[in-house]
Design brief:
Length: about 425
């Protein structure tokens, strides 16, 4: 299992290019199941999660041609609407094949995703939504077994805002008979990116980006070429790394307007931020004040940025409170940050962080994707050497992170360790 070894204390300086968004790429690649024509995607990030999804699509019979950051997919051949436990268990987002398979082929058998490090994360709202559209769904031996001659448009209210749930139902609705209205829909930019691609394919969608999305079903969709949006969480992670190390970094190929809540908090922490259409420059004005925050669905502060801010707050001036409202078990980085000397107390779904003058390097363990990013930031701040174990989590969602950080002056390297 690979490790990252970081010698901290260097302010990050320079330019970094932001990759395509993981959370946009995953649903977008599933749109290939909605058409017999070729889909072409550019700006595809080279990530483990993307490769897992490509493996899953290939296992169903999708023909995939990959050339660097461009991928062509075709599901003109016969498709087996089956997603095995082995492939789904490694990545929850695999459940995104359910809506497209069911609406185009009338049947699907998709493994339930099972447990997940950051909380229970059920898929009941995906299932309820499809049932409201007329699907017959049974859970058999850990699989969601779904049938529907033809899905029918419906008014669907989701009592919790769910990102992949909204995406799954939107993909199901584009080929359903009649009109579907998704209420309390997720407003995340990745949902908007998916809607835009579906519209390019011929879908009729209105209201994406708001909490009511209206989809008028069409009989068929065509192929299209689509460039995946920049990753706002990768962007946010580099912004926090720059601020926490007191650096000066220009992030290129990103969209500042998808990060308003994050930029607002960084400014509150005392960062100076300059944005253009496709870049963000960040540097600190003086001492890092840290920031209290509360996660909530977009456009509020993203849960996927909570852990990174906590690492920055660990060495900020004063006490801050971070409250997690989306996932029930998303503080696993706290005990690892404590190993580096952070003073953090957890009370229910809030963490109270009392800033300390410095962190000291130690060996820590990554527990999930964003917790890993938090430990990398902590390692960049800490004095001495930090070794991060189990970095396969990081490879799920950050493209060439050590290379990008090295280019910004960080002392970071990957150590390949033998598996016994
Ligand atoms: C997506 C993102 C993930 C991000 C999360 C919240 C992708 C691939 N992943 O995950 O990075 O952290 O949004 O912004 O886009 N819930 C239910 N029933 C359901 C579905 C969800 O109760 O059927 C609950 C979840 O347990 C959680 C909340 O809804 O408490 C939000 O989860 P959701 O938005 O669905 O997360 P994902 O789409 O899995």
């Amino acid at each position: 299992m690979d490790q990252l070894v970081i010698s901290g204390g260097v302010p990050l300086q320079g330019k970094v290019s932001i990759s395509g968004a993981k959370n946009a790429a995953l649903p977008l690649l599933c749109t290939t199941l909605l058409t017999s024509q070729v889909m072409t995607f550019t700006n595809v990030p080279n990530l483990k999660d993307v490769n897992t999804l490509l493996k899953l699509l290939a296992s169903m019979g999708v023909v995939i041609e990959q050339d660097q950051k461009q991928i062509q997919l075709s599901s003109s051949q016969s498709i087996a609407p089956f997603a095995s436990y082995d492939l789904v268990k490694t990545m929850r987002a695999s459940v995104l094949v359910l809506g497209p398979l069911l609406t185009r082929f009338g049947e699907a058998k998709v493994s339930l995703p099972g447990g997940c490090a950051i909380g229970e994360r059920p898929v009941d709202l995906h299932i309820k939504g499809l049932q409201a559209m007329g699907a017959e769904i049974e859970i058999e031996q850990g699989y969601i077994v779904a049938h529907a001659k033809k899905l029918k448009g419906a008014r669907i209210f989701m009592d919790t805002v769910t990102v992949t749930g909204t995406e799954n139902l939107m993909m199901a609705a584009v080929l359903a008979e009649g009109t579907t209205v998704l209420e309390n829909a997720a407003r995340e930019p990745e949902v908007v990116d998916l809607a835009q691609c579906l519209i390019n394919m011929g879908a009729k969608i209105k209201g994406h980006g708001s909490d009511v999305i209206t989809i008028e079903g069409v009989t068929q969709l065509g192929g299209t070429a689509y460039s995946i949006m920049p990753d706002r969480i990768e962007t946010g992670t580099f912004l926090v790394a720059a601020a926490a190390t007191g650096g000066d970094v220009l992030l290129q190929g990103t969209r500042a307007h998808s990060l308003d809540a994050v930029l607002d908090k960084l400014a509150e922490a005392n960062a100076l931020i300059d944005v253009t259409e496709d870049s963000i420059r960040i540097r600190m004005k003086g001492v890092n004040h840290g920031v209290s925050l509360r996660t909530a669905p977009y456009p509020a502060f993203p849960t996927d940025m909570q852990a990174q801010f906590m690492a920055m707050n660990a060495v900020a001036h004063g006490t801050t409170v971070v409250t997690e409202t989306i996932f029930e078990n998303r503080f696993m980085h706290v005990q690892e940050l404590r190993r580096l000397g952070a003073n953090i107390e957890v009370e229910g779904n809030s963490a109270i962080i009392r800033g300390v003058p410095k962190l000291d390097g130690a060996t820590v363990m990554a527990t999930d994707l964003r917790a890993s990013a938090s430990l990398v930031i902590a390692g960049l701040i800490a004095h001495g050497e930090t070794v991060i174990d189990r970095i396969y989590h990081l490879d799920r969602g950050y493209e060439c992170i050590e290379e990008k950080l090295s280019n910004l002056g960080a002392n970071i390297k990957r150590r390949v360790t033998e598996v016994h």
